[in-house]
């Protein structure tokens, strides 16, 4: 499950928690569409748009929380509930965005759960489901492994490497969505600035460990909800 927040970025208490199907429904059909179009128009004209963007609902795609305040250890223990099983990635693009989105879907359609336009149309947002057990201690190692093993050719926004990262509600009537997609990492690979290389860590999975969330292709279909084509 993923926490959902109304009233903008300064509200740190979630309104509800949503599963991946409800999240995709909100992206495809939401009442903030006109405001999102306004944000995109302002950005296109190189005008200030971030203050308006901050008023949109948002999610914590990596986790579910009582309160989006996780930086300090004591706050993490008090406010964190559980990992969603998904890792949020964002790619900023200055070229033809529809063509870029199409190319990203073609490259990662067997890996990604969700690929859609970002809120301001500055790039694409991606969710990847991982079957490995996720903990605070290995979250960044898993993130690094996903980027280095699967998305090393892409300019992934490093700010998404944050457990409580906020993702503003976007509008995309035709996202790529396949809830059956997932990856399992055999090693966690971490970038090391001091060694200027990669450090690998073997995973230690418990036998019989279930994935955090079970799944059923948008661009093709969303099972149980509606047919896209």
Q: Identify the overall geometry.
A: globular
| Major sheet size, sense and barrel closure | 4 strands, antiparallel
- % residues in beta strands: 15-25%
Q: What is the number of domains?
A: 1
Class from secondary-structure proportions: alpha+beta
Q: How many E-type strands?
A: 14
Mean pLDDT: 86
Total helical elements: 6
Query: Biggest sheet, strands in spatial order?
Result: 2-1-3-9
Low-confidence stretches: 191-229
Cα end-to-end separation: 27 Å
Q: If you compute it from the alpha carbons, what radius of gyration comes out, rounded to the nearest whole angstrom?
A: 17 Å
Percent range for helical residues?
A: 10-25%
- SSE order in H/E notation? EEHHHEEHEEHEEHEEEEEE
Question: What secondary-structure arrangement, pairings included, does this model have?
Answer:
Elements: E1 2-5, E2 16-18, H1 20-28, H2 33-44, H3 50-53, E3 58-60, E4 63-65, H4 73-79, E5 80-83, E6 86-92, H5 97-108, E7 114-117, E8 123-129, H6 139-150, E9 167-168, E10 176-177, E11 187-192, E12 197-202, E13 221-222, E14 226-227
Antiparallel strand pairs: 1-2, 1-3, 3-9, 4-5, 6-8, 7-8, 7-10, 11-12, 13-14
């Amino acid at each position: 499950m993923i926490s959902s927040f109304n009233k903008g970025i300064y509200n740190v208490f979630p309104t509800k928690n949503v599963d991946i199907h409800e999240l995709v429904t909100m992206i495809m059909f939401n009442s903030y569409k006109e405001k999102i179009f306004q944000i995109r128009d302002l950005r296109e004209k190189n005008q200030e748009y971030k203050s308006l963007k901050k008023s949109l609902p948002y999610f914590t795609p990596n986790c579910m929380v009582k309160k989006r305040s996780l930086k300090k250890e004591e706050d993490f223990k008090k406010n964190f509930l559980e990992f969603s099983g998904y890792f949020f990635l964002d790619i900023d693009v200055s070229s033809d965005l529809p063509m870029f989105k199409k190319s990203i879907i073609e490259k990662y359609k067997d890996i990604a759960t969700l690929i859609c336009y970002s809120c301001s149309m500055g790039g694409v947002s991606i969710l990847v489901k991982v079957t490995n057990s996720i903990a605070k201690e290995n979250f960044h190692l898993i993130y690094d492994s996903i980027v280095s093993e699967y998305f090393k050719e892409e300019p992934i926004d490093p700010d998404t490497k944050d457990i409580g990262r906020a993702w503003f509600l976007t509008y995309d009537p035709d996202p790529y969505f396949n809830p059956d997609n997932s990856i399992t990492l055999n090693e966690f690979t971490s970038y090391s600035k001091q060694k200027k290389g990669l450090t690998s860590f073997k995973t230690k999975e418990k036998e019989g460990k279930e994935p955090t969330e079970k799944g059923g292709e948008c661009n093709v279909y969303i099972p149980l909800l509606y047919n896209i084509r």
